[in-house]
Amino acid sequence: MGTNVDIGARGARGSNRRHRAPRDRGYAIALTALLLVPLMAFTGLAVDVGGWYARAAAIQRATDAAALGGVAALPLGPSAASTAALNVAAANGFVNGVNGITVVATKVGPDQLRVTITDPDVPQFFTGLFRGNVSIARSSVAEYVPSVRMGSPRNFLGTSYLPAGSGLTGQSGLPAGAPQEFFWLSVNSPCAMAEDGDLLSSWYNAMWVSGSFAGCTRPRTPSPPSPQIVNPTYSPDGYIYGVKVDEGYTGGPVTIQVYDAAYCAASPPGATRPDFRLSNAVFTTVYTVRAPAPNPYDGSLLHQLSLGGSSETDANSGVCATPSSFTTGGYRGGWRDLYTIASPTPGDTYAIQVRTTDPTNGNRGSVNNFALRARTGAMGGGFQSCSADPFEVVPQLRPASTGISAANCPNVFALENMSVFANASGSAAEFFLASIGQEHSGKTMVIDLFDPGEGGDRLRLIDPNGNFVNFTYRIVPRYSGEAAPAGGFGPFANQSQVNISANGDQPGPNRLSNARYNDRQLQLIVQLPPDINVAYAGRTWWRVRYDFVSGTVTDRTTWSVTVRGDPVRLIE
Q1: How does pLDDT run across 93-129, given as a tens digit for each residue?
Q2: pTM, rounded to two decimals
Q3: Number of Cβ within a 10 Å radius of residue 88
Q4: Alpha-carbon distance 91 to 168, whole Å?
Q5: Domains in the chain, please, with CATH?
Q6: Which of 183, 435, 469, 562 is the most buried (most CB within 10 A)?
Q7: For 245-251, what is the mean pLDDT?
Q8: Are 388 and 251 in contact (CB under 8 A)?
Q9: Helix (H, G, I), strand (E, B), or coil: what is residue 264?
């Protein structure tokens, strides 16, 4: 028997499917058509959003680069910074004014620049069907961290123990009762020995043989005859001092003045005539005033004064005559106007470059001690001391006493290196060292003291709150094969002081002095707090304290303060 199969029924069911298939296909086509529009929209949105993210990232990279490039030019002024920023943006494909692109650079702080790039019509591949133009803007803020200011928060620097008073000659310009600074600014002849304390000016060292000076080879040569050796830190550019006017400055012209500008030998050197004669050699001191620039040595020339001098003790003629006014006469033992900045730009720093050249013979070089100050008003007028530090501790220098606000007090300071002749009596003396602001929070401060300590007992650091701080110190070798000092080069961690008394091992032969740190570079390293404003309540000035054994110190030395880190950085 066979098996019965209901073919008709199956045929009927199959027939039913064949009849419904056209209707099913129409439904699928309609559904696909309905879904295709949102699917295409979402696909287009995904493509365009990806493109927008890529465009935004490209704009952000360009604003970062433009802000960094522009802020480096900020010392030249906001206009120069804006031009530099726009050039960097253009190099990255964003040209101001082309295809609607805008690039705007704005100074937003004393050393900060904000750059904003806007593309008002970002390309759209699909979403243009559903929405209007897409605009993307990105901003970056960069900060230029200038060189550390050294030596003074005031409008005078290096007046040593000049007596108070506003006279033309023999007076500091400080008010009665204000403490004296107890150091001169100083620069040596190129034929002075490096161990005489000038880090940059001396050509050679190791020049003391059998109790006398062995001679100085002129002109300078990189391979001097024995026993002379090259000073490895010699720089023909000399030293840089700054005169800064505050962002809020409204005080009019600023006149830079110099005390005892020429080398004029005195016998003996004293409170008002400070130069030291070590031989009958004469040299030239050159003062150059430069316009603001990222590198202060590169600023455009505003004025230059070259002064010879006299090795004749107590000479009183030519450049070594006493001044008859701030603008006439000689330079010995008095103040002379150097240059007037007619319209200083608020926030700018003007540079004073000081260097020596042209020793007249090969005898041992001598020492030119001088001072700088800045006053408001045209050339020939009087001087009023003041302070740019809102936390000034000397009552006579506060605005209530001077009538000059901190914002209207031009600050005079050293940049990079400060070459000084520190001279003080008593049991101790404190000197302003450097201003370390909030921008240096969490970084490492490095203090280099070249040839420090003659006449001293110990050296300590004081933070802006007036507290002694611990530090690490070491001796940095300056010469190949330099002999190690007693105890080694270090480092010596967590120290509260450096013993600078007594004698030590010389770094090499043919040195005159055997003082512990003679012709050596003493380096102190300090970890700064993570938030300087919080730690020091807005105060910024650090000081160095000398304690004395003999009751007096006469230390010819060069100080330098730096903070490790990139001077240009993004902060937003």
Answers
A1: 999 999 899 999 999 877 899 999 999 988 766 665 5
A2: 0.85
A3: 23
A4: 55
A5: 23-144 (no CATH), 152-189+237-423 (no CATH), 426-572 (2.60.120)
A6: 183
A7: 91
A8: no
A9: strand
